[in-house]
Amino acid sequence: MATFVLVPGAWLGAWAWEDTARTLRENGHTALPLTLTGLAERAGQGGPETDLNTHIADIAGFIEENGLRDVTLVAHSYAAAPVTGAAGRLVDRLERVIYVDSAPFTAGMCMLDLMPPEAADQLNRQVSASGDGWRLPMPPFEVLGLSGSLVGLGEGQRDALCSRATPHPFGTYTQRLAGPTEPGAGVDRVLITCHDFMGLLDAGTPMLAYLKQPPWRRFELPTGHWPMLSAPTELADILDKAVS
């Protein structure tokens, strides 16, 4: 049985993984959802100084302080950035890294690199105008859907996102990832692609070509960008297959 550490994407906390974690536990696994600094029940711990290094330290510290080994570290969306950083520091504690509708970062990258300059400028203005200069509020669904598929999110899931989402510390978007970023050579590497990332890989995006080759393994889940909300049981089943 595997030990999963489940890291949520932007605006989310451990709560987003509740249903998937429950199914994993029913299947005999250890499932440990993690809330990062400045989000959900840890919102009060965030501040202007909260950055990508903070979230990398959250993940590495959680695994080390709990004495966890042979960990399957799972990143959803934004969490790909801090999980990549943590994986480079936890070589002897990891068995596997899994990226859910996301991909590992390379040294020198930041979240803002993934969007057009005009979109990045818009986020900076939004943070200045309505986020006290350091918090990024979750955008409305009509804007959110421009960058992530909303397929599978019913009224209940959308209500949960709206009511439980937390403004995200923007320093985690602007700070560039520093090394080390590579997990150990023997660490298993897995992608779970939903609608968004399926399209990018299948279109032959050059910078992602390496993800279609060993040692990477790929599983597909035909749902939107938030599978832990839109298809939590199906996501748990794929996670179970990935470690079997």
Automatic annotation (TrEMBL):
InterPro entries: AB_hydrolase_1, AB_hydrolase_fold, Sec-Metab_Biosynth_Hydrolase. Pfam families: Abhydrolase_6. One of its GO terms (molecular function) is catalytic activity. This is AB hydrolase-1 domain-containing protein. Residues 4-237 form the AB hydrolase-1 domain. It comes from the Bacteria.
